[in-house]
Specification:
The structure is a single chain. The chain has 245 residues and is α+β, with helices and mostly antiparallel strands. It has two domains: 96 residues, no CATH class; 88 residues, no CATH class. The chain has eight helices and eight strands. A hairpin with a 6-residue loop joins strand 2 and strand 3. The protein is elongated and about 80 Å long. The two termini are 17 Å apart. 25% of the residues are buried.
């Protein structure tokens, strides 16, 4: 499973549900799975004394763990039905209560490796093979699909959206005011298009690329086309898949 990280503590299921219901936490499901992708960074309260930040692009991966005694002690009078609303279920065959948590997973590749690890280390039981394993396989496939999609999208933006204006600016004497204005509007569209990329580890690179494109726009408006080309070149460098990710 994912390594424990004090910066990214596990979250209780009912807390995540409450933040979503109150629109404190904005998420979207990953390819129809129960994995959630955080859309906007947010500061949330875990306990009365402790807060944590959920970063944009963090993946929240659901997992059932054996409920600690101190969790059950908080709700001694609740029925099994009401406990379920708190993310605690009764596993009759195992004779234990289980607590829903969400693990914070740093990035797409980490998620893919995590699901592979669960499949490899899963106890060979009938329940695992018939119920848990198919569920994990779907999550692994979804992570692979997202990784493939984002790689293709980055390549498309580099080759079809940024290189053409870079080429147009190669001969400043041929850049008319109307062409410069058109390139500036085009770069606005590219900046907006990049906003949909929220998954880690792409978020920092996406933001750096957007800053470079904004800088290129400013230089175009000033007529500094050589400087604009340099800024577009920096955007191209950032819109690549991180090595080792």
């Amino acid at each position: 499973m994912a390594k424990r990280d004090p910066r990214h503590p596990a979250l209780r299921g009912y807390q995540v549900w409450r933040w979503m219901r109150k629109q404190i936490l904005k998420v979207r499901p990953l390819f129809g799975t129960t994995i959630l992708v955080v859309q906007e960074a947010v500061r949330v309260r875990l306990t009365r004394e402790y807060r944590t930040t959920l970063s944009q692009g963090i993946l929240l991966v659901p997992r059932w763990i054996k409920a600690p005694e101190y969790e059950l002690a908080k709700f001694p009078k609740l029925s099994v039905r009401k406990l379920k609303a708190r993310g605690i279920i009764w596993a009759r065959k195992r004779g234990d209560f289980y607590l829903l948590i969400y693990q914070q997973v740093e990035g797409i590749n980490h998620l893919h490796r995590q699901q592979d690890h669960v499949l490899f280390d899963g106890a060979r039981t009938e329940v695992f093979d018939l119920q848990i394993k198919p569920y994990i396989v779907v999550r692994k496939v979804a992570a692979g699909q997202l990784r493939k999609q984002r790689r293709k999208q980055l390549k498309d933006i580099r080759e079809r959206r940024i290189r053409p204006p870079l080429k147009m600016l190669s001969d400043p004497s041929r850049v008319t005011p109307s062409l410069a204005e058109g390139i500036s509007r085009h770069l606005d569209n590219v900046i907006n298009e990049l906003e949909e990329i929220v998954e880690r580890p792409l978020v920092p690179r996406r933001k750096w690329a957007q800053r470079s494109l904004q800088a290129a726009k400013r230089q175009i408006e000033k007529g500094n086309f050589d400087l604009a080309r340099k800024r577009l070149g920096k955007a191209l460098e950032n819109l690549t898949w991180p090595e080792g990710a």
